[in-house]
Amino acid sequence: MGPKTYTDFIVIRQQQQQNSNHQIVTPSTQILLWLHALDVDPYAGPYQCIHQQSLAWLLRFFQFPLVMPYVFYTTLLFVLSFLCFPWFQADFIPSSNGYGTFYLWGIVFDGEWLPLGDTWMFATFHLCFDVGVFLILFAWRVTDVEDLHCSSTSEKHRQQWNQTLWFKVMEVLYWLWRMRSVMALGSFYGGLWPTLMMNLLVLWMLFVAGVLIWGKDGWIHKKNKTRIQMVLDGCDSCLDRSGPTRLDVNYEQQQQQEQQQVDSFNVSITSTSTMKNNPDDDWLEEQTSSESSSSSATTMDRNRIKVRRKGNGENNKR
Questions:
Q1: What does the pLDDT look like over 267-307, one tens digit per residue?
Q2: What is residue 47's predicted lDDT score, i.e. its pLDDT?
Q3: Predicted confidence band at 231 (pLDDT cuts at 50, 70, 90)?
Q4: What is the b/e burial string over 257-281, where b = at least 16 CB atoms within 10 angstroms of the residue's CB?
Q5: d(CA 38, CA 54)
Q6: Angle at 45 between CA 39 and CA 46, to 5 degrees
Q7: What angle do CA 43, 45, 49 make, to 5 degrees?
């Protein structure tokens, strides 16, 4: 017997899937099931909130590339650029026109490599406060309150902090503070060109401003306030409910009203069609039309006879 090939493992895997009655659950779905179980468990304990927040943040990072793909992949591209490419070019020694190119692990002066610990400190600070903080804010916008709670609970949950007005104002103030720190490089190391015009940090901060304004849950993005919480397949508490949504009673009433309207409309259509296609009604219409035509003919004959009699009487008088 030779070694098993890749096709052998595929066949074994397919047989296992056919023999098993349950479907393969993705990591995001499994996290949602855990969140629903914690939400309906009355004996979750005093650390339920910590457990829920840990699962919620894990879910946000799992769904980040699915819900906000453009933001995720652009952020990934910027992070790789910060690690590999030069950040900016500046006049680090103004007295001798010492223009150099700044990297994360050092500075290059006229083709000569100068490793410095200051570059690591500067890069670490800006990666944490300029990139890391906004990355967390982007991931926070991935989920809504309806995604983190079971639909069987009738409790009205508060909206997330990042969706409130005061938190958005704090985001703008933080962005202005960090942008001021980046713009300070121009005043220290050579002005607008090339320190700020050819700067990865400036491009990143402009991208962050665009996401804060036009991104999900941004200033201009319109959120649907009447979102319906859907049922999670695999959650027993959700499946035990009578309707597919939290508004199940109104949903059933609306469905019944629509069905009644459809039935009445169908009845009216069938009644009109039977009235048009009934042969007895056609026979009656023919009879009434023939009777009306015969009556009109008799009246015309009577009028003619009267006219003839009048004419004969006048001739006799003459």
A1: 555 555 554 444 444 544 555 555 555 555 555 556 555 55
A2: 82
A3: low
A4: eeeeeeeeeeeeeeeeeeeeeeeee
A5: 12
A6: 105
A7: 115
Q: Which residue, chain included where needed, has tokens 């066949």?
A: 11
What are the φ/ψ torsions at residue 103 (nearest 5 degrees)? -120, 170
The residues, any chain, with a CB within 8 Å of residue 211's CB and separated by 6 or more, are 71, 134, 138, 218
Output the six-digit token pair for 90. Answer: 């500046």
Residues in the chain: 318
Q: Kindly report whether the peptide bond that precedes residue 194 is cis, defined as omega within 30 degrees of 0.
A: yes
What are the CA-CA distances from residue 235 to residues 37, 44, 88, 150, 222 (Å)?
8, 17, 52, 8, 30
Residue 262 in this model has a pLDDT that exceeds 60: no
- Using the 8-state DSSP alphabet, how is residue 226 labeled? T
Contacts (Cβ under 8 Å, ≥6 apart) of 189: 90, 91, 92, 94, 195
Q: Quick one: which H or E segment has residue 123? A: helix 117-126
Radius of gyration of the chain (CA): 41
**Closest by Cα among 51, 84, 244, 217 to 140:** 217
Residue 239 has pLDDT above 80, yes or no: no
- 245: phi then psi, degrees, rounded to nearest 5: -135, 175
Statement: residue 247 has pLDDT above 50: no
- In which residue are the tokens 């003619």 written? 304
DSSP 8-state symbol, 117: H
Residue 246's CB is within 10 A of a number of other CB atoms, namely: 19
